[in-house]
Specification:
Helix content is 32%, strand content 32%. With 226 residues, it is of the alpha+beta class. Helix 2 runs antiparallel to helix 4.
Length: 226
């Protein structure tokens, strides 16, 4: 058992071994080219001289056999490609465990100890920005003045309320307001989540990153890391 098997991920060797084991169970019930030529030779040996085998039929049958053989070979190539892609996803996904990924939401999980990261997009510039932090029930936990800024700004909340007390672990939401072009406006804000485990895709379904505190994000949706 490899290190990937122990965390539920597949490698090229394990995928190929599984495919070979399944093929062995089914047995070899297909007609190969050698078997077909042997049957054809036998048929020609015992054909009726007054009613010989039609050459066009033999050519058609041989062409069909070559087509089936080609499809089988293509299927094997696709299986090998899928195994390689799966292995690459396994290596990449396993390296994401413990990393922070940007979420398309204004919420983030506070584990009760470590500071929680979030990001704001102040665009060309915003002044007098303020972040309001609420818990899962919608109750206001803290308000913090952020001042002025522009572009993407990464920030950290230490998990304390307005009285300086550490709040319980859980999911918290961030709402940022400020002034742009002389008007009050909502500033886009995005939370970050810590990857706790990975559910590997199968070539059809995307690999899913399971986040600490609940929630998931597809690997293809990850745009930024903390």
């Amino acid at each position: 058992m490899s290190v990937y098997d122990s965390i539920g991920l597949s490698t090229v060797s394990s995928v190929k071994a599984q495919n070979e084991a399944e093929a062995a169970k089914k047995g070899n019930s297909t007609l190969g080219q050698e078997e077909f030529l042997s049957l054809l030779t036998t048929q020609l040996s015992y054909q009726d001289p007054t009613n010989p085998v039609d050459n066009s039929q033999m050519v058609t049958q041989l062409a069909q056999l070559n087509m089936v053989s080609g499809i089988a070979s293509l299927n094997d190539s696709v299986n090998d490609l899928t195994a390689n892609v799966t292995s690459s996803q396994a290596l990449m996904a396993s390296g994401l465990v413990g990393q922070d990924v940007k979420l398309n939401t204004n919420s983030a999980y506070f584990n009760g100890t470590d500071a929680t990261q979030f990001m704001i997009d102040a665009g060309s510039g915003a002044t007098g920005m303020k972040v309001s932090i609420t818990d899962a029930s919608g109750a206001l936990v803290n308000e913090i003045d952020l001042g002025d800024g522009s572009g993407d700004i990464n920030l950290y909340w230490d998990g304390t309320d307005k009285n300086g007390n550490t709040v319980p672990s859980g999911n918290y939401s961030f709402a940022v307001t400020g002034r742009q072009n002389g008007a009050n406006t909502a500033i886009p804000v995005y939370g970050y989540g810590t990857v706790s485990s990975v559910t590997l895709g199968n070539g059809i379904k995307d690999t899913v990153l399971n986040l600490q505190g609940g929630g998931t994000i597809q690997m293809s949706e990850v745009k930024n890391f903390g």
